[in-house]
Amino acid sequence: MTQPSHPGLDGVAWRKSSYSNQEGGDCVEVAVPSPTAIAVRDSKNPHGPALVFTADAWTSFVDAVRAGQFPVG
Question: What is the pTM of this model?
Fold first, then answer.
């Protein structure tokens, strides 16, 4: 079965979130394909879909998470 590719993301360096656990669950990887874009994917499915955000949108999201605007549970 052929896996989908990520146009524009081939060869970028992905790094796993420091919040991901070592048991293989809840793993998020992030890449910076350009100075104005941030890509996010599930590390358990590296050939699956990836989301690409503008750097400004990603910064707004991270700021909102840090501020507790997305309660867990």
Answer: 0.74
